[in-house]
Amino acid sequence: MFKNVLNFFGKNKVVRSIHLQLIRRYQIERRKHISCTMKRPVGPRAVNYEMLLLKGVMAYARCWTAELEVAYQPLREPKSRAGKVGGSGRNSPGLSGKRKQNYVKPD
């Protein structure tokens, strides 16, 4: 996953030379790429995860400055639809709704 970050910034890039404008440019350019596995543009969650890895590397190298901490904005991610499979109404059967089961008494 970090391969894309390395390709953009360059393997010989000095970590201290990475600044906010470069990070924002990476976010924009990365969103234009097509995912190899999904065959659609890379989503904001993937870009944010890559930036989290970069932030960790920069923090470890003591290059993540207070200015970056304040000014860096992750990309907005759409709200998750997880847990909304069952339905929207109170009476709609969902995963937690009880079903009426017909039992046959054994003779």
Explained architecture:
With 107 residues, this protein is mainly α. It has a domain at 3-71. Helix content is 40%, strand content 0%. The chain contains 4 helices and no strands.
Quickly count the helices: 4
Instruction: List SSEs in N-to-C order.
Output: HHHH
User: Helical proportion?
Assistant: 40-55%
Radius of gyration over C-alpha positions, nearest whole angstrom: 23 Å
**Which oligomeric state applies?**
single chain
Mean pLDDT: 85
- The rounded distance between the terminal residues' Cα atoms is 62 Å
Q: Which runs of at least 5 residues are low in confidence (pLDDT < 50)? A: none
Main sheet properties: none
Structural class of the secondary elements? mainly alpha
| Shape type | elongated
List keywords for this structure.
107 residues, 4 helices, mainly alpha, 0% strand
Quick recap:
The chain has 107 residues and is mostly helical. Helices cover 40% and strands 0% of the residues. The protein has a domain at 3-71.
Helices and strands in order:
Layout: H1 3-9, H2 20-32, H3 44-60, H4 66-71
Helix pairs in contact: 2-3
